[in-house]
Design goal:
The chain has 7 helices and 12 strands. By secondary structure, the protein is of the alpha/beta class. The chain has a 7-stranded mixed sheet with strand order 3-2-1-4-7-8-9, with helices on both faces. The chain binds zinc ion (ZN). Zinc ion binds next to loops.
Length: about 300
């Protein structure tokens, strides 16, 4: 190799090194990950007012599923607008196979099917920064609330944790809280939004997509307007994430389960930690919330429908 060739190679290498240096200087700092977990129930989805719309095998079920995907994708769009780097959606209603994998936004990972150990919260862990509850409903025994129930309409009359009667949103927010993840938004009817604020505090963003007139009728927001509100609400909630606090009960956790009938409590009492506190009521205490939640699920699943 002669000297002039070596000189040319040296100059080319120097220019290359300088270019790498400049591009490294100009490259923006990597953004922190924003992992968002979305649990999606069905009774609180925009447009839904009746059990037929959330039950496979009925003429109206397909419409319910389409509306469900509409609300989910609105939440996914809101999360992406806020800079979400990973989004996990857990189908959380009934068979947990309601969301069409072909219709959900391709940036979201779908968890489909049941049973799952954490049920409506399957997939959450400490790596997530925020949790969103879409399509939720009020607890059993709430007036003017679409399809109000708690976990199982045919088995559960009420669930209390540390003396406070809980809707599913509270039981599930405490699972998120167990992993240090705050619930930042809840959507559903006006009744569940009211309960979300009562339990999680005034900072949680709520999106009311309908106002119930009894258990099976509601004044609906137009679907497009409801979905726009969900999208904007999710973006807003994630933008002010720094102020959000995980929801936790104080340990030890005292769970009380009121069944509808005593025959159900007879079955639930087979669970070793259960104590009978009345004809229809079982009580137990757990030091670990997830362990307590799983015991509660077993007590519900073991009981015959009324
Ligand atoms: Zn449901």
């Amino acid at each position: 190799m002669n000297k002039s060739v070596i000189a040319i190679i040296t100059v080319v290498l120097m220019i290359g090194a300088a270019a790498v240096f400049v591009s490294a200087q100009q490259r923006p700092a990597p953004k922190p990950p924003l992992k968002v977990f979305i649990s999606v129930d069905m009774e609180g989805i925009s447009g839904i007012v009746h059990g037929d719309q959330v039950s496979p095998g009925t003429a109206e079920y397909a419409d319910g599923c389409a509306w469900m995907v509409g609300d989910v994708n609105a939440a996914v769009h809101g999360a992406l607008a806020a800079g979400a780097t990973e989004i996990v959606v857990n189908d959380s209603h009934g068979s947990m196979r309601n969301i069409d994998p072909g219709a959900i936004h391709p940036k979201a990972t779908l968890i489909s099917g049941s049973p799952k150990p954490l049920s409506m919260m399957q997939g959450i862990d400490a790596s997530f920064q925020a949790c969103i509850l879409i399509g939720y409903h009020a607890r059993a025994g709430t007036e003017d609330a679409i399809l109000d129930h708690t976990i199982s309409g045919s088995v559960v009359r009420a669930i209390r944790v540390n003396g406070i009667e809980m809707p599913e949103l509270g039981l599930n927010a405490a699972i998120a809280g167990y992993y240090g993840v705050p619930v930042v938004l809840v959507s559903g009817d006006t009744a569940v939004c009211r309960q979300a604020t009562e339990i999680l505090g005034k900072d949680v963003v709520t999106v009311a997509v309908k106002e119930a007139i009894g258990r099976q009728a509601a004044k609906l927001r137009p679907l497009s307007e409801a979905q726009n509100l969900i999208q904007a609400g999710v973006k807003d909630a994630l933008n002010k994430l720094v102020a959000a606090k995980p929801f936790k009960f104080a340990a030890p956790y005292r769970f009380e389960l009121d069944y509808h009938i005593s025959a159900q409590a007879d079955m639930g009492a087979m669970i070793p930690s259960a104590k009978r506190a009345g004809a229809r009521t079982l009580v137990f205490t757990a030091d670990d919330y997830i362990e307590g939640f799983r015991t509660l699920r077993a007590m519900i699943n073991i009981a015959p429908a009324r």
